[in-house]
Amino acid sequence: MAPTDETGQTAPQAPPFGTTPPPRSPAEGAVGPGTRMPRWLPRAMVLALGLVAAFQFGSWAFHQLTGLLINILIAFFLALAIEPAVSRMAARGMRRGLATFLVFLGLTIAVAGFVTLLGSILAGQIIKMVEGFPDYLDSVINWINTTFHTELRRVDVQEGLLHSDWLRRYAQNSAAGVLDVSAQVLGGLFQLLTIGLFSFYFAADGPRLRRTVCSVLPPARQTEVLRAWEIAVDKTGGYLYSRGLMALVSGVAHYILLQALGVPYAPVLGVWVGLVSQFIPTIGTYLAGALPMLIAFTVDPWYALWVLVFVVIYQQFENYMLQPKLTAKTVDIHPAVAFGSVIAGTALLGAVGALIAIPAVATLQAFLGAYVKRYAVTDDPRVHGHRRRATAPGGLLARAGRLWTAPRQRTATDEAGREPAVAEDGD
C-alpha cells in the first residue's frame, strides 16, 4: 500500500536508484537543483564589483592628489597672468624660455626685496618695543596706582609673570610647536617651488601646450579652445589690473593716514597694506592692518586704535563701493556675480578659490557669451526700468482745471438736452 501524507493523499515517491527522474513541468517551478545560472550574471557581478573598486580607487587618488591639483591650478592662472609679457618679449625675437625666466626673475627680485625691507622694519620695531617695555610698564603701573590707590611695583609684577603657571605652559607649548612651525614653513616653500615650476613650464611652453591640446581635437573644436585660451588670458590680466588699481588706492589712503599720525615708515607700510590686502585673499586684510597697528602702537597706543578704525571703515568702503565697480569695468562682470563667485570659490577651494574665482567666472561668461544668440529687445517700459507717463498738454494746472470743469460741463449738457422735453409738456 502506497504511503499517504497528513491530508490522506498519496505522497510522491522518489524514483528507484539508477533511473532518470521524469522532466519537471513549468507549473512545478524553474528553480531547482537542475536549474542553470544565467551566463550574464557572473559577468554582471564582476562588472559591478569592478566599477565599485574603480570608484573607490578614484576617490582615494583624488583626495591624495588634491593638493597637487590645486597647485597646478594656481600655476596655470599665474602662467595666464604673465602670458602677455612673455608673448610681447617673444614677439621681439627673444626665446620664449629666456623671456619667461626674465619675467620670473624680476618678480622674484621684487618680492624678495619687499619682504627683506619689511622684515628689517618689523625686527627694528620689535626691538624698540622690547627696549621700551619697562618704561611703558612703569607708566601703566603709575596710572593704576594713581587711579585705584594701589601700591603696585614693577618688580612684583615681573616676578609674578616669571613664576606664573601660564608663562610656563606657554613656554612648553611654544617649544613643542617649533617642529610643527618648521614643518609648515618647509611645506610652504615646497609648495611655492611646485607652483613656480609648473607656471614656468606653462608659460614657456604655452604654444607647444596649445598644439598638444589641439592635436587631439577636430578643427572646429580647435578654434573654440584657442578662443577660450585667449579670453582666459585677457580676463586674468584684467583681474590683476583691477587688483593693482585697488592696491594703489588702498596704499595711498593708508599712507595719508599714517603720515598724518606721524607713524614711521609710512610709505613702506602703505605699500604693504595695498599689496597684502589685495593679493592675499580672506586673511590679507587682517595681516595688512596688523603691522601698521603694531608700529603705531610704539608711537602712541591711541594711534593704533585710530589705525584699526580706519582699516575697518576702508574695508567696508572697498567691499561695497570700490571693488564691485572696478571689477565690473576691468573684468566685465556684474558686481553681484563677482561677489557671489568669490563666496562660491571660497566655499569650494578656500583661499585659492577666492583668488581665482573672478577670472574663472569672467572667462566662462565671455566664452559662453560668444555662443548665446541674442535678439533685439522690445520697446517696453518694463524693460527700460520706468513707466512712461502720459502728460496732457497745458501742464499740471491745466489738467487740474479740466478735472474741475468737466463735471459742470457734463451737468450743463444734460440740462440742455432736457429743455425741449419741458417745452413740449408746457404746450
UniProtKB/TrEMBL annotation:
TM segment ranges: 44-62, 68-86, 98-127, 183-203, 245-263, 301-317, 337-364
Biased composition (Pro residues): 13-25
Bilayer topology term: Multi-pass membrane protein
InterPro entries: AI-2E-like
Principal location: membrane
Entry keyword Transmembrane: yes
Keywords from the UniProt entry: Cell membrane, Membrane, Transmembrane, Transmembrane helix, Transport
Region: Disordered, residue numbers: 1-33, 407-427
Subcellular location per the Swiss-Prot or TrEMBL entry: Cell membrane
Family: Belongs to the autoinducer-2 exporter (AI-2E) (TC 2.A.86) family.
Protein name as it appears in the record: AI-2E family transporter
Organism expressing this protein natively: Streptomyces anandii
